[in-house]
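Appendix B, Record 12. Input sequence as logged:
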Amino acid sequence: MTNISYIENIDRFADEGSVVVWLNKAGREALNCENAYEINSRNGCANIEWSDLRFGEQHIEFAPGGSEDARILEYMLDNPESAIEDILHHLEQLNDTPDVTDIRRGFVDNSAALLFKINGVDWIEWLDDDNHNHLESTHTHLDSQYAGDHEEVWAQLKEWLADNKVLVEWSNGQASMLGGEFDTLAEAEAALESVKSEFFAQCGTDEDRANLEAGEFRIVW
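Logged structural output:
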């Protein structure tokens, strides 16, 4: 099936310097794309944007530099079907990316670790003993057993840790208030009572105290 056969309609927006390519059912299935892709200019360079059904928002930017930027942009706006091969190639790369899921902290043999799955298979990496928000620098597990995708997996794990600190917080199920970020679970546990005291000390009325008592103080680990 040729690229053009995947296209249902093309909307051209000359004033904005962009083209929206609407895909038919075969095109949406082949590209794993929601409905359409757009070709536009980003900093004078050709840029393809679309939403992948599995991986979410995606874009490809073509910026070789010099006069090539304008030439490629003009060509792709005039021939938007040419972007389909680029999207298919990008999809192959996405599908080759290891799927890291079910990430959580835990203790294994009394040592802090990050537990997770790669493509559905259980894996483990050790956390720094002095900072449960950081992985150990050795990362021997991924080097020896998942070396081909080490950098990608490592990046996903570090991103998760950056977004999921060891916290003490108050929550009532609908709202939450941060009591502090900590390097280790032990530090959070040691600080829990003092965080409670600080919160209650700030209560100005009986209603404020009642609202605090209606929730709970917890460690997010």
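Helices lie at 25-31, 67-78, 83-96, 140-145, 150-163, 185-201, 206-214.
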